[in-house]
Amino acid sequence: MAHDSYHHGDLRAALVAAGLELIREVGAEGFTLREVARRSNVSHAAPYRHFRDKSELTAAIAEEGFTLLAAEMRRAAKAAGTPRQRLVRAGRAYVHFALRRPEHFKVMFAARLDAERHPAARRAADDAFAGLVSLVVACQEAKQLRDLPRLTVARIAWAQVHGIATLASGGQFQLQTRAAVLAFAEQAMESLIEGLR
Amino acid sequence: MAHDSYHHGDLRAALVAAGLELIREVGAEGFTLREVARRSNVSHAAPYRHFRDKSELTAAIAEEGFTLLAAEMRRAAKAAGTPRQRLVRAGRAYVHFALRRPEHFKVMFAARLDAERHPAARRAADDAFAGLVSLVVACQEAKQLRDLPRLTVARIAWAQVHGIATLASGGQFQLQTRAAVLAFAEQAMESLIEGLR
DNA sequence: CTCCAATGTTTACGACGTAAACATAGGTCG
DNA sequence: CGACCTATGTTTACGTCGTAAACATTGGAG
């Protein structure tokens, strides 16, 4: 019995889905536990059977975001030939994600407590980063990158891409179209890779 | 007549100062208009004589942040010799600012509405960016940077530095000390500049 | 078939953002 | 010098939120 009985079936997943949708609509500021419950046709206290508090629901939403982001980066990288191209594609996918889901993206990096209080979200984030590291390592092995410590190079690339994603999705650059931002991102990554050779 | 009479003297400034302190203590989540009023020894509705709503107070705090940030970048840049060094120093100051005031920094870039609803904050942010552009132009004139469009180069540098600032101040890198982050930031900027020559 | 643990609901509380009605004081004009 | 007007604070009030506690329902294990 999924839908109209006293018990819901899979309320937890429904709450995460409704929460994600709500965040996309109104941003993290307007995001409300009670509204999420309303949209799930459930009393305002029901979420507490699945999440200890509000931050745990947003952490679950963030976690799903990292999983999604990692998957999109992997998919984008797979489509390309050389290690260097794969790295650029993955970075592009990162920026693309931030542009399509700006509020979701913001939530993923907003909760600084995630680390200790929400280990699952943290693990998903680390996974996404690990994917990036492996792409960097592949570039190094193909002699496309200087032989700095892997973590250092990966962090530099991550920061470059993350900065573009954050600023662009927050409307801080004046670039109007998505395509312009993505073209800019590729240009930035190419320049960075040149400097790291 | 500053302090203990019915009228306050300069409540607006006091509210901004108290708000800044509160944000440093509890972050943007715990930030509350009523607590700011309490700390200013004023009723909870008094702030409404100076700010239309909560977001306008946070915008004022953000504005002050951008002014401060621009000043610190200017000061850091002035201390160095070559245009290239000046650019690196300014970027370092940017990261340093984010590390010392992580919550303030977050607030500065969190309010996506700033643009239309809070033009003063927007102007302060644009000022800070303009300072960066001028440093980039100086590098180009000294033939330290390739002759890409100035805005493009400035945005690349900004994004690099902003990414480091955001991720490091959010604890996303595993770097433990401030010094380690700053050293990393310099390394990243040097690499980037190499790629842009 | 019965009963229990899991999962929802109701009710309640204090804090918050905000609006409206009210109070005070400090500078302006007679 | 004194009355008043407008700036700036205060009080009171309302609806919403996060959260806790007490209560209700139900699907499945014995």
Q: Could you name the key traits of this structure?
A:
homodimer; 197 residues; mainly alpha; Arc Repressor Mutant, subunit A; Tetracycline Repressor, domain 2; DNA-binding
Question: How would you characterize the overall build of this protein?
Answer:
The structure is a homodimer of 197-residue chains. With 197 residues, chain A is an all-alpha fold. Chain A has helices at residues 11-30, 33-39, 54-78, 83-100, 102-110, 114-117, 119-141, 150-169, 178-195. Helix content of chain A is 73%, strand content 0%. In chain A, helix 3 packs across helix 5. At the A-B interface, helix 5, helix 8 and helix 9 of A face helix 5, helix 8 and helix 9 of B. The structure holds a DNA duplex (30 and 30 nucleotides).
**What is the CATH topology assignment of the largest domain in chain A?**
Tetracycline Repressor, domain 2
Give the total of beta strands of chain A: 0
Helix content of chain A: over 70%
CATH C-level class of the largest domain in chain A:
Mainly Alpha
User: Which protein chains are joined by the largest interface, and how many residues does each one contribute?
Assistant: A-B, 34 and 34 residues
Radius of gyration of chain A (Å): 19 Å
Estimated structural class of chain A: mainly alpha
Mean of the pLDDT scores of chain A?
Answer: 93
Look at the structure and name the CATH superfamily of the largest domain in chain A. Answer: Tetracycline Repressor, domain 2
Q: What percent strand of chain A?
A: under 5%
CATH architecture of the largest domain in chain A: Orthogonal Bundle
> Segments of chain A where pLDDT lies below 50 for 5+ residues?
none
Number of helices of chain A: 9
> What's the oligomerization state?
homodimer
Q: How are helices and strands ordered from N to C of chain A?
A: HHHHHHHHH
Name the overall outline of chain A.
Answer: elongated
The major β-sheet of chain A equals: none
